[in-house]
Amino acid sequence: xxxxxxxxxxxxxxxxxxxxxxxxxxxxxxxxxxxxxxxxxxxxxxxxxxxxxxxxxxxxxxxxxxxxxxxxxxxxxxxxxxxxxxxxxxxxxxxxxxxxxxxxxxxxxxxxxxxxxxxxxxxxxxxxxxxxxxxxxxxxxxxxxxxxxxxxxxxxxxxxxxxxxxxxxxxxxxxxxxxxxxxxxxxxxxxxxxxxxxxxxxxxxxxxxxxxxxxxxxxxxxxxxxxxxxxxxxxxxxxxxxxxxxxxxxxxxxxxxxxxxxxxxxx
Length: 267
Hints:
267 residues
């Protein structure tokens, strides 16, 4: 569900936002990912990771998001340790070899892999350069008569869908057909053009996770306008009002997670 109402466009200049944790949202700036916050992933070699989002009861509790770098010769033969977990891997630099259900895929910058719950997969870096990717995970909620299947594609091979009423300013690359009920999460890429404005405040019923891939913007979160830049991440509680004003000279692009296609669970 999405509702909209008019939002006042903010002033062009705001101070850089630091880490913020509010009732309706959390903002973690790029500088929070440092050597002091690095995580060693179980079952991985020559790999470092940072937690972008993790489940928190009463806030954003359905998914995890890690920013991962795999050094030459590194990787994992058993990357997923929990049964029933689906995932998306999106590569931002370097190359990786993904073996998925017996088939090997050469991943490059912009490659996108949906890994269905129960998929047999491994990932390794056989190159001489460090590979970096986003790894978003969620416990899959099955639906009778439906079954999500794994796939590998590339960002450049997915046509953008222009948002109605945005005058071409805002578009989304949807890697999964929104009408495919087998999928209970979407991880998309949203692009807003330079100086673009989404002047209406949106309110979504589902939690959201956002990682800024490029550009800068003033983003409205609840009652606050905050500056967000490449490398920053946001977690939005259900029904958190949001709007956006692109403040930089380049496209504002972000990777967006949301849960979809399932009833709210009461038990």
